[in-house]
Write the structure tokens for this entry.
Amino acid sequence: MPRQISYRWRLRELMAARGMFTVAELMPHLTERGITLSSSQVHRLVSGTPERLSLPVLATLCDILDCTPTDLITTSAQNLPARRAAGEESPINLAARRPTRVRLTPEG
């Protein structure tokens, strides 16, 4: 059965819990640990959900926020309904195929 995996990026929440509310407050911590990102890159990390993230950046964020990767990224998975295979027959809904009766009235 296919599964859909989703995740939630919680960097902003963890920053706020530690009293950091702006990108400018996070940048010096990254720099002192050897991570050089532009302010726009850090802004995208904080305000959005990254599709790709390097392990050094992830490890540095965990060090700065004193957390683990599972604190930063929460995941969930759910089963998807099975799709019908090509050529597989499904039950026919006769009510949907039955024509409606026409009522004829005399003109006049």
In short: The chain has six helices and two strands. The longest helix spans residues 55-65.
